[in-house]
Design a protein that fits this description.
The chain is an alpha+beta fold. The protein contains 18 helices and 22 strands.
């Protein structure tokens, strides 16, 4: 085998396509084995570009250019399809001029090198780079638009990546700097970075200027050997979340307070009911006993003391009912300016001379619907408490009246209810310059029997709250130790003029027959004795069934029925309904230790001729019977 044959054989074994073309027609004079396998339709003697494809014509033009210029041309990553169509390959093509012995160019040499792996690898890298670019763009968009930021730093604390819309600095200015040095004036951040570099996973709340709070999560990442590779710190703006949590906690505390007040109110009302039954017996029998002893009798002073003690006890039960929000009220339109001025004039002599009492109210103020004595008790308790808070030091108690428009979100932190209906309110403010209260004291001041005084029952503020709630109002309080206390009472404006209250009748004696239906023998006895003193005949029944039987037997002879509301067997309302079935015009007085609102709710349309709350005096009993006999209904 000659040298030429050995060279051609080597070309057939080469991992490249080799072709030789001669003449201006560019005829193939040699095709190596790989070239023939990739282009099986070509034969020696064919001309370049004979297939007529655009690519073939382009190669022919380039080959002619090489022959004319004598300069080689190189093309990169030309696509070549396998003859069976299974894949696409990529070749770098070199078109090199061939010269005859005289040096003239008479042909070209085509050498194609398979660069498919390199092209595919490069394309894979480009696609990965594009995916990475898109992911980074999306991440940056999220970080820029979201309420967060991300920072990474290596095991030495050097910042590697910084992004996020919540950042207050230009990332380009801090990337590459050491976090420990950058935040050397921020001890909390330095401590957090050191913890993260110690491979600790944790989160911290970080307050920032502008009333903004971030929660930063530090996550160390280890390399395959377990050593710290980098730390990812993700900061989230949690200002809204924390405010929402505070608001939820405030609402929860307020609901708990309301539920506690309701529960204590029910308890106070129940206790007051039982006490009222006992006081009815004590007051009634004492009044009868007093009427039977002369002025010089040795027992008279003792009986008078019993009556005074029972009266004070009755006042306690009224305060307990007031706390429960179910006290007995005589409602009418009131001008608070008049009542506040009157109470202030009376209280000036009761408070320390070192405490000045200042009144401030506008020329016009809407009336409120309320009970004069109960609202006077509110003013008195608040002013006395304020004066006692000032103590023996010099100070001031300011009492102000004003009108306030209440709407959604304007009520503030209310005590006594969760919210008030929108509308006009009269605001009574009692403010002192005293010592103020700690939070744990402030949280309990309305609890019944809670007091910080050496003496006192702890029912004053409890009664204030109950009275205000029962009038459809609420309280606001501001107090800080050393900064005094301000109570604000909001009462719905009535929009009408105040009217004078009617006085009590002087003569309560009468004639007729009264049927008492009560399961408590002592109550029946005491009430019957008082009625006898008033001039009435008395019949007694121990329950509803017996009372109905007596009423049927004495039909037409019973003028008034005095009926207890709570009895075993037939209840008061059931007995009243059956009495009405016997006689639609029967005059019934309901007497009960419960509050009038509770009585009205239980009776519904069964309206009695009168309501008589326990305990009652002989005069009050006489007035109720007179009202029933006259047929005047009490609403």
């Amino acid at each position: 085998m000659g040298d030429a044959e050995r060279i051609l054989a080597a070309f057939d074994q080469a991992p490249a396509t080799v072709a030789v073309l001669h003449g201006t027609e560019l005829r193939y004079t040699y095709l190596n084995d790989l070239f023939r396998r990739l282009s099986p339709s070509l034969r020696v003697g064919d001309t370049l570009g004979a297939t007529g494809t655009e690519q073939a014509r382009h190669f022919r033009d380039l080959a002619l250019q090489v022959m004319q210029s004598g300069q080689q041309v190189q093309m990169r990553a030309l696509p070549v399809d396998r003859p069976d169509g299974t894949a696409r390959l990529y070749y770098d093509l070199l078109i090199h001029p061939l010269r005859d012995p005289t040096g003239a160019v008479d042909g070209v040499l085509l050498i194609g090198t398979d660069v498919t792996p390199a092209v595919e690898g490069r394309r894979a890298l480009e696609e990965q780079s594009e995916r990475t670019r898109r992911a980074e763009a999306q991440l940056n968009a999220v970080l820029q638009k979201g309420p967060l930021f991300v920072v990474t730093f290596d095991a030495a604390g050097t910042l590697l990546f910084v992004a996020g819309g919540e950042l207050r600095v230009d990332p380009a200015q801090i990337i590459g700097r050491n976090a420990l040095d950058l935040y050397r004036n921020d001890p909390a951040t330095v401590a957090a970075v050191r913890r993260a570099l110690a491979v600790e996973t944790f989160s911290v709340l970080v307050p920032r200027p502008g009333n903004v709070t971030y929660e930063i999560y530090y996550t160390p990442i280890r390399d395959p050997s377990g050593a710290l590779e980098l730390v990812v710190a993700c900061g989230v703006n949690v200002t809204r979340r924390l405010r929402a949590e505070e608001e939820r906690a405030r609402i929860h505390d307020k609901m708990q307070q309301t539920q506690k007040l309701e529960s204590l109110g029910v308890l106070a009302g129940g206790i007051a009911h039982d006490f009222n039954n006992l006081l009815t017996v004590i007051q009634g029998n004492a009044a009868v006993a007093l009427s039977k002893v002369g002025d010089g009798h040795p027992a008279r002073e003792l009986i008078e003391d019993i009556i005074k003690a029972a009266t004070r006890a009755a006042e306690l039960t009224r305060q307990m009912l007031a706390y429960s929000g179910k006290g007995r009220f005589q409602i009418g339109p009131l001008d608070l300016r008049h009542h506040v001025s009157e109470i202030a004039r009376l209280l000036r002599t009761s408070i320390s001379k070192k405490v000045s009492l200042r009144l401030d109210h506008p020329a016009y103020l809407p009336a409120v619907q309320g009970d004069a004595s109960q609202l006077q008790q509110v003013v008195m308790n608040l002013v006395l408490n304020a004066a006692e808070a000032v103590g023996s030091a010099e100070g001031e108690v300011a009492v102000r009246l004003a009108e306030e428009e209440v709407g959604p979100g304007t009520e503030g932190d209310l005590i006594g209810c969760e919210s008030l209906p929108s509308g006009r309110y009269v605001r009574l403010t009692v403010e002192d310059t005293g010592l103020g209260m700690e939070r744990h004291i402030l949280a309990r001041i309305f609890d019944p029997f809670f007091t910080t005084k050496a003496t006192g029952r702890g029912l004053g503020l409890a009664a204030v709250l109950g009275i205000v709630r029962s009038h459809g109002g609420a309280l606001r309080i501001q107090s800080k130790p050393g900064a005094g206390t301000r109570f604000e009472v909001l009462l719905p404006a009535a929009g009408m003029r105040a009217q004078p209250q009617a006085g009590e009748a002087a003569d309560t004696r009468g004639k007729g027959t009264v049927l008492i239906i009560d399961d408590e023998p002592s109550v029946r006895t005491a009430t019957g004795r008082m009625l006898s003193l008033l001039g009435y005949d008395v019949l007694e029944a121990q329950d509803g069934d017996q009372g109905l039987e007596i009423f049927r037997l004495r039909r037409g002879a019973v003028d008034v029925v005095l009926l207890d509301l709570t009895m075993p067997g037939l209840s008061g309302e059931e007995t009243l309904r059956l009495l009405r079935e016997e006689d639609a015009e029967v005059r019934v007085i309901i007497f009960s230790g419960y509050a009038e609102d509770d009585v009205a709710e239980r009776l519904g349309p069964l309206r009695p001729a009168a309501l008589l709350p326990k305990p009652f005096t002989r005069q009050q009993l006489g007035q109720a019977v007179q009202t029933a006999v006259l047929g005047v209904e009490i609403v």
